[in-house]
Request: fold
Amino acid sequence: MLPLVSQKKIWFIKKMNLLLKKIERLKNDRNAVILAHNYQLGEIQDIADFTGDSLGLSIKAAETEADVIVFCGVRFMAETAAILSPQKTVLLPDKEAGCPMADMITAEQLKDLKAKNPDALVVCYVNSSAEVKAQSDYCCTSSNAAEVVNSLPDDRRIIFVPDRHLGQFVTEKSGQDIVLWPGFCHVHVIITEDDIREAKAKLPDAIVMAHPECTEPVKKLADELLSTSQMLSFAAKSPAKQFIVATEIGIIHTLKKQNPDAEFIAASKRAICPNMKKITLEKVAWALEDMQYKITVPEQIREKAKRALDRMVAILPTG
Ligand code: SF4
Reply:
């Protein structure tokens, strides 16, 4: 007779295998594609057809022949997929998976801000609701925010929403006069200067990669300011073998998988997005089984939001 611990382990492995087979079968039956953001749990990233950042994933899904998109991420990401793929069914496996930063500005608040700055152009970070995108002139990602702003006429004031830290980064890079909305990502602002210093004390030769959503003092201590997709490509090309990662810890799963010879440590183990971690394998199976939770964007909002995304794509390639 096997010890109880071993029996439990075997039972768990059998259960997981059954669950993975079920997801695979349902995915084929539904002609679905599974997308996982870089901040998802490792086991979710492992079953995904594509992993990446929110816009890159939505673009990839739009290019597939799939009828159904299961977006393992948060609501604004599923909305972005629905904006780009109106003919596909977009499912968010947990309907409560939202983004507190995206929720920090409503379309009404943006309308008021526009009324106070009538000549300004609005650039919204992709981490925003479909309604806010629809009220914006341009969309941007953390990879291309500075390039989008730099491409705009010098004599126009710019409103940037909702993340003030990404907005501050863009202000410094572009030298433009930008009206910033005071939004922030609670996961990135939890990372402190002391966290970076302590991590540097452990790995003095490591390269510090920080996301532009981090606070300004943290960004000052970083060697590289990079979006999640830029972190992945930077680490793959870099001759360095040690990295301190100042963003949501989920990305370390993919960084380690893609660079098995390198060492990656989280700048802060507290940098966990509870909304991203709401998606589990069971919920992915239920989403495919029950075709829930469908994320739709009303057509008049979708058209306007797509215009802001299209304008960004027209300026430069996404990445
Ligand atoms: S990590 Fe921050 S920006 Fe991303 S979903 Fe979580 S709260 Fe929103």
